[in-house]
Amino acid sequence: MGSELTASVLLVEDSETLAATYQAYLSKENLKLARVATGGAAIEFLSKQSPQVMLLDLNLPDMGGMQVLEWMVERSLPTSVIIITAYGSVDIAVDSMRLGVVDFIEKPFDASRLKVTVNNALNLHKLKSLVENYQADAGRDSFHGFIGSSLAMQNVYRMIEAVAPSKATVFITGESGTGKEVCAEAIHKQGTRSDKPFVAINCGAIPKDLMESEIFGHVKGAFTGASSMRAGAASQAHGGTLFLDEIGEMDMELQTKLLRFVQTGRFQKVGGSQEEQVDVRFLCATNRDPWEEVQAGRFREDLYYRLYVVPIHLPPLRERGLDVPGIAQKFLRRYAKEEGKQFRRFSSLTATVMSNYDWPGNVRQLQNVIRNICVLHDGKEVLASQLPPPINQLVPEGAIGKDGRHPEEVVTEEQTDTGLNGVSQYQIQPLWITEKEAIEHAIDHCDGNIPKAAELLDVSPSTIYRKKQSWEEAEAS
């Protein structure tokens, strides 16, 4: 079948002769073929395992094949079904297709027809599985400290998951404020070293003459002020992860020593004569283009090739679609609680202005803006008039009245809380929060029974479990 893994197929056929014929037709295919003779036996088989494809005869001795199919549909089994019958008709074909049958084959047929039909069904099953897995990933609105469900962030999440179990060096790039350290911590937490130290050094925040000591440590008397021996980040990260942020700021001489450390895992403390050996995983980041830094002579080419094993690029906030409202809402809840303020949401005008802003400082700038608002203002709703410069320059001229509200934002307290028919028309909030509230309401309604809640919401229980885990991780971060 062209697949590395053996595909599983169930044949439901009561005729011994025909069953033997079909098994012979498929004998040279890369298949694990099981066979049962009755509808009851098929249901019993399917209750224990789900083959990728099922060849189902409609005329069975104990029940009709359509009954088996209806039983499968009620339980949303993922098996792709091919109907086999000698009593074919347009009506039967249409009815079976409505129940999700992928193909309809009428007796008699030759080996070639059966092989092609089974091949097509297996390929379709594989494609459906890929789509479902992609949709499941696309549903993640948070991941190890990140908030966002945009396609750009789903790609980042998948890259982190793929590279985390490895010891390969990861080079994280992205504009300032995009979350490079959050990414590094996510790789550490997702990997096999999560119970070991994660040590971060910002190469741009430490004076160059102290950087070597920060990384490798120093012995007593190594330089003025070195009154005692000090372990550096390399020793502290033993067994875990060493993250070198803004590595492009490191001077060339120290880059040479770092190259040897990355290659061998060995180093000497400043002023020391003995070598130490440590086991660390290297992660590094820069807000510059590392290859341009190499071409400009500011970064060693050999160090670049040693570190640039797996690159992960973090997209700027302006390229993350509708992620802004969700991130802003998280910061609003956090800082309103810290400052003892009432803020619960953003007005529609505020949300529109924030979504249209380019955020050159990315998530860090958004974080600072929300903190500014929570420190200087109060209320249940963040108004456009409370936005600080330069974001407030996007507020349309004349859109804010003397009371600081847009005319459409002038509502009574009662309307704000309940709105018409008990539902506020002004409580516009990010879609993921609405989804969270709906799922939590369904779980409460079902007394904590998640499979039952999933059935009411028309989603799989795994979707609810995954989303609950992502919310809990976001709240813990």
From TrEMBL:
<dbReference type="InterPro" id="IPR002197">
    <property type="entry name" value="HTH_Fis"/>
</dbReference>
<feature type="domain" description="Sigma-54 factor interaction">
    <location>
        <begin position="146"/>
        <end position="375"/>
    </location>
</feature>
<dbReference type="GO" id="GO:0000160">
    <property type="term" value="P:phosphorelay signal transduction system"/>
</dbReference>
<keyword id="KW-0804">Transcription</keyword>
<keyword id="KW-0067">ATP-binding</keyword>
<dbReference type="InterPro" id="IPR001789">
    <property type="entry name" value="Sig_transdc_resp-reg_receiver"/>
</dbReference>
<dbReference type="Pfam" id="PF00072">
    <property type="entry name" value="Response_reg"/>
</dbReference>
<keyword id="KW-0547">Nucleotide-binding</keyword>
<feature type="modified residue" description="4-aspartylphosphate">
    <location>
        <position position="57"/>
    </location>
</feature>
<dbReference type="GO" id="GO:0043565">
    <property type="term" value="F:sequence-specific DNA binding"/>
</dbReference>
<keyword id="KW-0597">Phosphoprotein</keyword>
<dbReference type="InterPro" id="IPR011006">
    <property type="entry name" value="CheY-like_superfamily"/>
</dbReference>
<dbReference type="GO" id="GO:0006355">
    <property type="term" value="P:regulation of DNA-templated transcription"/>
</dbReference>
<dbReference type="InterPro" id="IPR003593">
    <property type="entry name" value="AAA+_ATPase"/>
</dbReference>
<keyword id="KW-0805">Transcription regulation</keyword>
<dbReference type="InterPro" id="IPR009057">
    <property type="entry name" value="Homeodomain-like_sf"/>
</dbReference>
<keyword id="KW-0902">Two-component regulatory system</keyword>
<dbReference type="InterPro" id="IPR002078">
    <property type="entry name" value="Sigma_54_int"/>
</dbReference>
<dbReference type="InterPro" id="IPR027417">
    <property type="entry name" value="P-loop_NTPase"/>
</dbReference>
<dbReference type="InterPro" id="IPR025944">
    <property type="entry name" value="Sigma_54_int_dom_CS"/>
</dbReference>
<dbReference type="Pfam" id="PF25601">
    <property type="entry name" value="AAA_lid_14"/>
</dbReference>
<dbReference type="InterPro" id="IPR058031">
    <property type="entry name" value="AAA_lid_NorR"/>
</dbReference>
<protein>
    <submittedName>
        <fullName>Sigma-54 interaction domain family</fullName>
    </submittedName>
</protein>
<keyword id="KW-0238">DNA-binding</keyword>
<dbReference type="Pfam" id="PF02954">
    <property type="entry name" value="HTH_8"/>
</dbReference>
<feature type="domain" description="Response regulatory">
    <location>
        <begin position="8"/>
        <end position="122"/>
    </location>
</feature>
<dbReference type="Pfam" id="PF00158">
    <property type="entry name" value="Sigma54_activat"/>
</dbReference>
<dbReference type="GO" id="GO:0005524">
    <property type="term" value="F:ATP binding"/>
</dbReference>
<dbReference type="InterPro" id="IPR025943">
    <property type="entry name" value="Sigma_54_int_dom_ATP-bd_2"/>
</dbReference>
